[in-house]
């Protein structure tokens, strides 16, 4: 049977052919270079991972450093899988696992993340659907796909970054649209794939996570065409699965690094939670969900809720012995290890952090396997059972002791209000007929692009085009640009010409 790598090699290009002078021996490396050389990639240095890099004075990860680490892990996984004879035939059967494809997709996977990280993603989605009338709303993965396929305007054409079909397919963590592709839609499956479930507060809105808007559906189909008959329409390619797994690994490790450095993760609180559950796991397992809810503030209760959640959502891999072992391993490495030495900025402390991260990265990369028949909730590439549980516990530490903090919530509520006010101000500007000639040039271009994408008989075509253009425009700002632009629109900024950089 012809391998998927062969049609990809014969048809390596995106929507438009590249000039002959632009070809290299490896078009996938050319894709990587196009991504890294794009302004969309450079912008990620000013976009929040968890804490906004603007004005914080903190040396924490942003979306750029996160993407670089994901690419590093993803390439290491791909190279390891290709070197292992156990997986060679299976990888070829499923469509291949090219390290350059995986690396390029990892570098591009967060291009569409808006200012202020996941908070900005939720706010823009709500505004897009409820205020601007866009049924597709906003989703960071779909916005990344839109950027590489549509929103880069060259002359009369929109070519995105003109990436190969292979790399575009590898970007699709969630290879479906919000509502209607493929048919039947993955959200109707029992159980649904990870990310396909609608948000609990809006069950009719479609999947929480999705890889492309309807406007890019033809491109999604073309990118996935070489894998038809090899993997289901809703399943990630192997290369997308590697990228997704690497994203999880990098996220679990470097967020712990960040909040150790800034002093947010304290040994006492993390130790109390983990050790209380270890001492009283029998008691916690025996009580009802209702009783557990009433004991929400009791040490050990939160991690017991995690254990139950894993069984509800991921029964295909959840295992109580593996979970208990993961809690113990994280306690040894984190509580008795990293957090036992308060970070003081010294060379010794930095080396200690580096060794901690290297140990975990090596452990996870070496535990990657490939399966022919994955669970609906998994990809073809996955972590071993022990390491999968360890990732869940590390992510729990981040969620419990960082994301749940009231001081972070206060900061984020202000950022959410800022984005809402900015969207409203841009909408009013677009509706002002006397200001049409003075619109930001980029916003004007994006309106024309969005209008051209819509069918001429689309209800309120102009309004929807304006709404999508505003979403595209705001999503391409850095945190600092969003703040500066709202200051200018609110009349609070006196720096007339320096504010022009956001336009």
From TrEMBL:
It is an enzyme of class 3 (hydrolase). Residues 63-252 form the HD domain. Keywords: Hydrolase. Its EC number is 3.1.5.1. Residues 178-188 have a biased composition (Basic and acidic residues). One of its GO terms (molecular function) is dGTPase activity. Pfam families: HD, HD_assoc. CDD domains: HDc. It comes from the Bacteria. Gene3D superfamilies: Hypothetical protein af1432. InterPro entries: dGTPase, dGTPase-like, HD/PDEase_dom, HD_domain, PHydrolase_assoc_dom. Residues 189-200 have a biased composition (Pro residues). Residues 177-210 are annotated as: Disordered. NCBIfam families: dGTP_triPase (TIGR01353). This is DGTPase. It comes from Micromonospora ureilytica.
